[in-house]
Amino acid sequence: MRATVMYGTGDVRVEARPDPKIQHPTDAVVRVLAAGVCGTDLGTYASMPPGHEGRPMGHEFLGVVEDAGAGVSDLEAGDLVVAAWRYSDNTCRYCAMGLHTSCRNGGRYGFDDVDGGQGEAVRVPYADGTLVKLPASLDSALLPSLLTLTDVFSTGHHSAVSAEVDARTSVTVIGDGAVGLSAVLAARRLGAERIILAGRHADRTALGREFGATEVVSERGDEAVAKIRDLTGGYGTDAVLECVGSGTALATSFGAVRDGGVISRVGLPQYTEGPIGAAMMMRNIKLTGGASPARAYIEELMPDILDGVIEPGRVFDLAVGLDEAPAGYRAMADRRALKVLIRP
Fold it and tell me: Are strands 237-242 and 170-174 parallel, antiparallel or unpaired?
């Protein structure tokens, strides 16, 4: 098969790799129909040291089951499935708590002899626990939106759920990337009527408004904080969904949240220290969030996509074939694309 492999900073290639085969009874082999390039993939693209062995890329994918091990009971060949961004057994204590990202038997695609999702096929460990059947046709126009359940929309949802967003919650979303826009959509789905989107890319914030943002703040840093405070009568919002991961975004979050409010972090941190000392304590700010346990959310979110209530797949603004995957990475790195969809 052909698959996307990264060899170092800016060095993405599409090359031949061994066809995946069942190695354990709980495995399934999935033929990939659609895959996404994630912001964390882009972080690797910008920072991976060069190496002799390439790393298979991608953790956002959906496709068709081609083969299943003897221990797989819920799936069969021909099923259309979506995969959570980490595989998990869905039976351990952490999975039972809805924390599939901490599964004792779980892991990441592209590591430990497990394929990446940006290829023609993937061996999926713990298939019954990881894969969810999709009641859609293989050529459905809903596939891009269903693909967001793997990670990006589930992450936006996780940020909003962790902040306990509901109809009474005023929200600031920091970041107009795909996760930030997903957080806007998720907050609106949960009933939030006031959503301030902090972002400076007009095309992205325009989509954010269509997703439910009521106001846009294009300033950054202290100026953004001043604007958000001004919009909220000096208080700040009940919740801030931090979807960037930079130190500046975290500092803005502390400035934008009201006393007693919640900051929910889902942007992969690019910092090692933050303003979480006495000032945070005296203001009674809650800090929450983390890596999205997407497997816990897929069945909850799927019906609204199938019914056309939400369309999170609109974050994909560039679709490429597998051989064009390196160009897709470059387009995202150069900010010419918000999020890339790969069709092997």
Answer: parallel
**What domains are defined for the chain?**
2-151+294-343 (3.90.180.10), 155-289 (3.40.50.720)
Residues 6+ apart with CB under 8 A from 318: 328, 331, 336, 337, 338, 339, 340, 341
> Rounded to whole angstroms, how far apart are CA atoms 305 and 308?
5
Q: What is the pLDDT of residues 259-287, one digit of tens each?
A: 999 999 999 998 888 787 877 889 999 99
| Main-chain dihedrals φ then ψ at residue 220, nearest 5 degrees | -125, 160
For 108, residues 6+ apart whose C-beta sits below 8 A from its C-beta are 59, 86, 87, 114
What is this structure's pTM?
A: 0.96
- Give the model confidence (pLDDT) of 224-233 as tens digits: 999 999 999 9
Which residue, chain included where needed, has tokens 């799927």?
A: 302
How large is the C-alpha radius of gyration of the chain? 20
| Helix H or strand E encompassing 324 | none
Print the SS3 string covering 122-150.
EEECCHHHHEEECCCCCCCCCHHHHHHHH
> How far apart are alpha carbons 158 and 266 in whole angstroms?
8
